[in-house]
Amino acid sequence: MLGLWNPLAKKWLPYLLNRVTKTYNKYMKDYKRELFSNLNDFKGPSGDLKVLELGCGTGANFQFYPSGCTVTCVDPNPNFRTYLNKSLAENDHVHFQDFLIAPGENMPQVASGSMDVVVCTLVLCSVENVDGILAEIHRVLKPWGKKVFSQSAIVQVPPLKKMRGVCNLHHR
Ligand SMILES: C[S@@+](CC[C@H](N)C(=O)[O-])C[C@H]1O[C@@H](n2cnc3c(N)ncnc32)[C@H](O)[C@@H]1O
Predict the structure, then answer these.
(1) Which residue has the CA at smallest separation from atom 22 of ligand 1?
(2) I need a labelling partner for 81 at 20 to 30 A (CA). Which of 17, 43, 89, 99 fits?
(3) Which segments constitute the Methyltransferase type domain (predicted)?
């Protein structure tokens, strides 16, 4: 059953998430604004702000990022690409670096000590190897880097309560 479910879920989850995200962002707008408000404080000496978005999904956070930052996206599901492109087109204040198809536990494409900020929202609930992801985050962050996590707030949004656990199906 799972052998059949996984490819289907992998294909349909980006579509579903894209629909849910619009409502979620509407409810969480003020919270997200505050969450990402001080990202510029973590710019490196060069004045650039390099952000790694881990488990980027549809790119729901781009609209809250500061102008001029450079974003590298990582997600194991390549089917998010279409929605990611749409998000990037709507948020041209963000410079897109790359979309890497990889799990957060193993991102050899991302150089050690290369990121000012790592963002990881609504991802850790659906992964088994949280320690592996945290180790990779620490590896790729610069010494002054910032980690931004946001988790499980989805269950606070009334119309979305029923979505809890959907992401888990995808990653079994
Ligand atoms: C609920 S979605 C959240 C997407 C986005 N971060 C947001 O806040 O809208 C979970 C995301 O985590 C990704 N994901 C699942 N397992 C992952 C892993 N091991 N490493 C990185 N991302 C993962 C999924 O493909 C999906 O894009």
Answers:
(1) 55
(2) 43
(3) 52-147
